[in-house]
Write a sequence for this structure.
């Protein structure tokens, strides 16, 4: 029996889903697969696991698993459910890519979707689970989609075995046809249970005019007006990325200054990493973390990490919208924005990379006599419900990474969101009482929004997924029951890349083109491919790892691959400064970092490893300096990124030691710099992984068009690509280079560049 506090009991009774407990449990009892739709905040995530627990689904040792596309949700929700049920974290636990608190006693397990996918590789039938809940299915994250496809096969197999598995798909929207009407997925459509939400009316106000690009400034003005003129009630602002969120928080705190307590609130933000660092130092700095491989996601792409991903473009684009800060230097506010200090504003940021204890703050009532104002990214759209929100301010935008499916070139763009997500955002205002949503764009613009955002799987390259599926012996990936399949082009591109990396067996050369195409789509995995699939990094990097057993190069490649996977080691200094003083500071830092990078790039032929040598040098130097926060701060390294690189190095080291009995890489995190001959070998290994990412410099005598000056030509693109001024190879412009990726900002820039010798090119 679950012993809940009366307080919890009272709060639960207010949730619409409680009225449906019977209906839901009936449906689950009668069917192996059930789809459950209910508005955000109706209680799906927190209550359904409890219903199942109380109905005895864990009584004979089974586990209830719940997958979330975002790390934030997995952690917060497990804590919430443990608290509501009065059970310890050892019983209601979570597992995300690098951490978790799972025990042998765990009965309810929240995890990211990538973690469950990894478990399927080890135990295809997921025998320890009695129920698997796929939460937030409407988000259509790639792993969620694939899990639904896999589970549609696992459920009947479990039934045949006489150990039935229940599957529940939960969605915040009613748009579930991709799951229910897809005959390949579920020949018999699963029943859909709807939870009637007790939603209060939300009045939507459109702007008459749509601001051209200063939507962050428009948000600021709108919050000021609401706070100034409208009755009490929390405000929730939707912006597109972490940098914007922080900038608006700073601005609002300045406009509605807070005393004593709230000062410390702000301070905490900047000292937080420091504190964390101090704790981590106590954990012995020179040994790589030992990793329990059972607790790991093997999936290469960062789970639910949209914010960091979205943060990457911030330096070049998003900061433009933060310009307003410049006008605020002396605290002058426009008319009508005067701060009403009689009612302070309690401003909190919310985004997925925020430390969990800070995320939890948004659920607590704001201090007496203040108004809550949460400035959030998409996280607040459906994953987390913040109590007491009466006003929503929606900029209408979302930041996404866009890929060119053929060339793989990616760029971050801030675009209009979909009508569906704008409506979700508006709905946040009507949870506890009637509310208002202020859309900072016109109704005409809204009617031009696409109705729904397309599923993620149709928008990105899929080589990592294809490799994982082949490792599960799904040879004809094209026949896999995807809720929405990737395009055939994307699948072919993925298989071609995997064939060229040697991860798949070559298709027979004979036959007509059509047959060849078809053959290409059903190549079995090679033994190299099986090894590659075990590394939690993208197939190109996995190939590098698989090759680097010689000449003592493994520790270096592990480090390079970790740094390339984590990305964005260096802080961004090319942003507009708030004051003259800050401008000087940024300039000084940038110069220092550039100098350090030149040192880390090494001397003589070592320099030819280019940006990757810098990564190696930076990680090496940081370890030698005792892995201190100060070292990172002084040298323009992002401490958080360095910590993550360390964890990934630990994981890769463990994996390699486990896979190859003949090597034994030391877990010592310190490395001596590679010798010149090792550097040459490293360059060759890097080229083996990035073989199709070759670029050739346009020679002066070939220059027909000015736009090609100092440019490079690649096999895939018609347009010139460039070495970024921040690259250590920018001044050298080697004749041939390989690159990690091309990101389009003001130009097409290659990232992670290193030089190759012409004679290596086949
Ligand atoms: P759904 O999954 O249907 O969107 P949830 O189960 O997440 O709904 O939320 C149900 C209710 O529980 C919401 O009103 C939400 O505010 C509340 N809630 C969720 N997590 C917490 C928490 N950590 N602290 C306080 N309230 C919470
Ligand atoms: Mg939920």
């Amino acid at each position: 029996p679950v012993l809940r506090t009366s307080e919890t009991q009272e709060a639960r009774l207010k949730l619409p889903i409680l009225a449906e407990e019977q209906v839901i449990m009936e449906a689950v009892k009668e069917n192996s697969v059930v789809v459950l739709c209910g508005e955000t905040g109706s209680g799906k995530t927190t209550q359904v696991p409890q219903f199942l627990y109380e109905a005895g689904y864990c009584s004979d040792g089974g586990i209830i698993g719940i997958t979330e596309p975002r790390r934030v949700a997995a952690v917060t929700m497990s804590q919430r459910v443990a608290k509501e049920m009065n059970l310890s974290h050892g019983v209601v636990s979570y597992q995300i890519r690098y951490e978790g608190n799972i025990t042998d006693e765990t009965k309810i397990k929240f995890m990211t979707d990538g973690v469950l996918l990894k478990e399927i590789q080890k135990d295809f039938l997921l025998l320890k689970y009695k129920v698997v809940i796929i939460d937030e299915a409407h988000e259509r994250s790639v792993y969620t989609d694939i899990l639904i496809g896999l589970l549609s096969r696992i459920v009947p197999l479990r039934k045949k075995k006489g150990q039935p598995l229940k599957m529940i798909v939960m969605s915040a929207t009613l748009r579930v046809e991709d799951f229910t009407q897809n005959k390949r997925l579920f020949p018999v459509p699963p029943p859909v249970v709807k939870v009637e939400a007790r939603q209060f009316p939300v009045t939507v106000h459109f702007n008459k005019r749509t601001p051209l690009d200063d939507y962050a400034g428009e948000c600021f003005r709108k919050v000021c007006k609401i706070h100034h003129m409208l009755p009490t009630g929390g405000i929730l602002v939707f912006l597109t990325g972490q940098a914007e969120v922080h900038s608006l928080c700073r601005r609002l705190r300045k406009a509605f200054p807070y005393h004593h307590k709230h000062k410390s609130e702000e301070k905490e933000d900047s000292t937080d990493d420091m504190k964390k660092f101090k704790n981590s130092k106590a954990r012995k700095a020179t040994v790589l973390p030992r990793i329990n491989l059972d607790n790991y996601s093997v999936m290469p792409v960062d789970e639910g990490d949209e914010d960091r991903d979205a943060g990457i473009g911030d330096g070049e684009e998003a900061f433009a919208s933060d310009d307003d800060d410049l006008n605020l230097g002396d605290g002058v506010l426009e008319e009508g924005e005067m701060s009403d200090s009689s009612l302070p504003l309690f401003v909190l940021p919310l985004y997925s990379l925020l430390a969990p204890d800070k995320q939890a703050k948004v659920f607590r009532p704001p201090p007496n006599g203040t108004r809550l104002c949460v400035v959030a990214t998409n996280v607040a759209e459906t994953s987390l419900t913040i109590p007491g929100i009466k006003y929503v301010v929606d900029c209408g935008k979302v930041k996404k990474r866009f890929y060119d499916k053929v060339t793989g070139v990616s760029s971050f763009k801030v675009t209009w969101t979909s009508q569906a997500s704008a409506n979700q955002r508006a709905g946040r205002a009507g949870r506890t009482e009637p509310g208002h949503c202020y859309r900072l764009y016109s109704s005409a613009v809204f009617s031009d929004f696409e109705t729904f955002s397309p599923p993620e799987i149709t928008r990105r390259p899929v080589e990592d997924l294809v490799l994982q599926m082949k490792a599960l012996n799904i040879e004809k990936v094209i026949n896999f029951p995807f809720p929405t399949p990737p395009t055939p082009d994307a699948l072919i591109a993925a298989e071609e890349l995997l064939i060229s990396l040697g991860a798949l067996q070559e298709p027979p050369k004979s036959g007509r083109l059509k047959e060849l195409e078809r053959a290409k789509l059903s190549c079995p995995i090679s033994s190299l491919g099986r090894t590659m699939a075990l590394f939690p990094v993208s197939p190109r990097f996995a190939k590098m790892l698989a090759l680097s057993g010689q000449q003592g190069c493994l520790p270096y490649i592990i480090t390079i691959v970790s740094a390339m996977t984590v990305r964005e080691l260096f802080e961004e200094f090319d942003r507009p400064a708030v004051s003259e003083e800050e401008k000087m500071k940024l300039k000084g830092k940038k110069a220092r970092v550039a100098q350090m990078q030149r040192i880390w790039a090494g001397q003589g032929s070592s320099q030819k490893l280019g940006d990757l040598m810098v990564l190696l040098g930076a990680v090496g130097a940081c370890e030698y300096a005792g892995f201190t926060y100060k070292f990172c701060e002084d040298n323009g390294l992002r401490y958080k990124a360095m910590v993550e690189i360390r964890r990934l190095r630990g994981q890769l080291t463990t994996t390699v030691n486990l896979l190859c009995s003949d090597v034994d890489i030391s877990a010592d995190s310190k490395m001596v710099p590679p010798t010149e001959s090792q550097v040459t070998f490293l360059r060759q290994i890097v080229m083996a992984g990035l073989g199709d990412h070759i670029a050739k410099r346009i020679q002066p005598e070939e220059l027909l068009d000015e736009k090609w000056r100092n440019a490079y030509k690649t096999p895939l693109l018609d347009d010139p690509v460039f070495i970024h001024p921040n690259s250590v190879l920018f001044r050298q412009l080697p004749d041939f280079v390989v690159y990690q990726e091309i990101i389009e900002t003001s130009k097409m820039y290659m990232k992670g560049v290193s030089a190759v010798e012409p004679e290596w090119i086949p």
